Glycosyltransferase RgtA/B/C/D-like domain-containing protein (Siphonobacter curvatus), 603 residues
Amino acid sequence: MKNKNLTTEPTPVSTAGTSRILLYVYAALLALIGWFVFQYIFDKKLSLTGDATDYYMLGKAIAQGDGYVGITGPERVPANHFPPGYPFVIALIMRLFSDKTTTIQAFNGFFLVVSLLLLFDMFRRMGRNIHLAFVGALLVALNFHILQYATMMMSEMTYFFISLLALWFFVKSDLKRPAWKDPYFWGFALGVVASYYVRQTGLMMLGGAGLYLLVRKKWQHILFMGVIFVLGVLPWQIRASKLGGDSHLRDMQRINPLRPEEGVVQGFGGWVERFWHNTERYITREIPSATLSTNVEDYASSVSSGEWLAGLALLALITLGWFHLRQYRLLMAGYAMATFALLLIYPEVWTGNRLMLHLVPFFVFCGLYGLYYLIGLGLEKVRVTSPLVRRVGVPFLFLFLVPSFIGQTATETRPGDGIKFLRQMARIPSYDPAHENYFQAAAWIKEYAPQNSMVVCRKPSLFVVFSNSYVTTYPYTENQKDFREYLTKRKTNFVVVDALGYSSTPRYLIPYVQANPDQFEIVLQLQNPDTFLCRFHPELGWHGPYNDKGMPAGKGEYRFGDGRKFVGTFSDGRMLSLTGEGTFYDPQGKVLGPATFVNGQQK
């Protein structure tokens, strides 16, 4: 079997021998299957990542005319962390339809179905086999990871759709025409800008298109594409620079964005180490799980030799399929290389395949095309030359992969995967106990707290959807002085001590609560797991100096909730480990007598 190299210009998809009825039948089947599967696995519950409700609140701000600002506090702070594209989509849905989160999630179903049709057409052009294109798009419609994000109120599916639409415009464009006279190339250029405003990885499409155009010496198209992109994103970049620069760029430089105190990557060696660890993870886990629609059970475990062999074998198969594509190899190669040039220097803690979700359909199709090519070689060896067998029979042979994509439900003895597992999760009517308690605390705030109370909690954007209050997170610092000043500056009324499982709560919040227990009056306590909603009393607890590490120490006083106070000199002013000598006073200021504390115990 000979590989036919790319022609100088993309040629139209041949329709000779291909019934238009078959084309429409396949398209209709994909649309129906895509919508059915979406309904089958649709989960009405909010995504608990936190980003989902961040997007929701930003969209709400735009919809109600406040602009692109945060509205979770008394101040209207200009937003700069997320690009405004997806919040703008949410705002449109709110204004035209409903502000219900389920309505916003339902629009992902529309994006999914249209994306499948776009992929079907692109696969048809890339492989010149309508049957293989149908099977490839079908497997994408059943892909666990794509479907998982399809029901979330997150930017992934919007970016998935817009980026595919931009690529579809590109493959439909006529490079023989001047760029500015081709409506499809205009659509591509504007689509890249739109995708960038949803996720900044939209920039990577320029890498794919640029490589494709560079080889064909289409300088005019390259210049036009670059000018449109620069002019399109310039307003956002100017705004971001005025607000302190790109927060994503700062996060990329940190060892762990969730723990800023760990610092930034040091030196060339630090970046090389990060690059290697990410390369290992993507080859052995992310790409195989995304392509084969499986789960990664444990990122913490070391990578085995079997994972390396399986990952490299799959990558070789994908590469083989890519090499033998009939068209747009350079477009796909440039797009993938530009994407991974960025992903491989991202912080290692950003695990999962959401950042490469837009490439998953092409991995699936290239993998299928690699198998298609190898089976074709085998058929030639045994002298099976029937075009019907090769062009129709072999693609339909791949339908035997469908059961593995459907997957299985989870039990006590086995993990779940595939669309059956997504269906199982969607049918669970409530959240896990920790989040149920968290949302009950939010409901208490909505019912009993004064209007516009400020609540400090771990996931403010999740909390605010149920509390309708002001919210903010606690500072990620072990410095007790800075922690106290933050709570006071934010005019905190309530604090939530949750059991959501994030390491930051026991690392930063709980030590401060233990150091000043009298500042936190429990107004709601929930069990299994323990969750506390506390009223904050800044006038109680430690009042005095702090040492160089921000720990309470020196001449000061500790004020108790019952009105007493202990005045003296302390080497440790935290109640949990209170150490020092001084005098006790009753609520009226009368001396009760001297006292000594050692490690929180009165002697």
